[in-house]
Amino acid sequence: MSRTSTSRRSEKRLRGIEIRSPECSNEVDLAEVASFLSSIFPSMSVSVKPTPFRDLTPRAIEKTASFLASSRVKDISRPFEPFEPMYGEVDYEVRGLTGDARLGGIVYDARRIEELLIGLLRTRNGLDTATIVMTDRLVSTYSYDDLRHHLRTIVHGFPSIVSVPGLVEAPAKPRQYYILKQRLASAGDETMDSELLKRAFKGRFLDYGSPKMTEVAKGLALQAVVHHLTLKPSCPNKKCRLFNAHWQEDLLLSQSGAPGLCSKHAELIRSLGRAPTISW
Ligand SMILES: [Zn+2]
Fold it and tell me: Which domain holds residue 107?
């Protein structure tokens, strides 16, 4: 559903939350995310289901692959426009959907992915279920503020999309990290450099394999549910789970503990937990 079609005020109760697992990674403990949401919304069923990209018919695979291939962001300095994909791009997506190719490295336009997911989920989920699709794909949205695409950790919508590699790749690392990286790059072994950088900036950015991946995913999943209920998922307070972080250090700070909400949102979440009513 697009934002424009959500302007009609409704008073509907949310009955369930559905988390769709990523295509193949195990970086996030989804059972823990589900139990975090259950503790906040005790009246709701919170379920974890397989990725909507699984078990597609051969015809749906072909269609989905072609849509994915034409959703790649090729020029980060321009708003996305769909294009006719090349054979190799579609073929890669077919192999990605059937588990024969590793996902990674390609950036997709988030709104196109949302459109695709709406199609894949349409017959199953109404508005009384908040759906959060976790994906192993990188997604970006174009910003008219600085006229370029930005990778995203989460894209709020119906469904909301949480990009697992986006947790690592989207928010910027500390400025000094890039300065040091540039210096090291001019002299030598890239693997050594990457290890050295990780040691030097330990704890200041999220990396694959960290238990904090799950902690961060919990806060983003909560943002998705708050968006579904209120259309206002963000908070300017850096110590609140609803903070929209553009820097890794802010992401880790805002998602560092349970429940970790500012006083305004602690009150809001308490009230939504008692009566999860869609109020927009
Ligand atoms: Zn807040």
Answer: 18-171+206-279
Q: How much distance in Å is there from the Cα of 240 to the middle of ligand 1?
A: 5
Token pair of 276, please? 């999860």
Tens-place pLDDT, residues 222-244: 999 999 999 999 999 999 999 99
Q: Is residue 1 in some structural domain?
A: no
Q: How far is the CA of 251 from the centre of ligand 1 (A)?
A: 13
If one counts every other C-beta atom within 10 angstroms of the C-beta of residue 180, the result is 16
Closest CA to 121 of 8, 18, 225: 18
Is the full-model pTM beyond 0.85? Answer: yes
Q: Which helix (H) or strand (E) holds 165?
A: helix 164-169
**Average pLDDT value for residue range 38-47:** 95
Cα separation, 135 vs 240, whole angstroms: 24
- The token duo for 207 is 């990396």
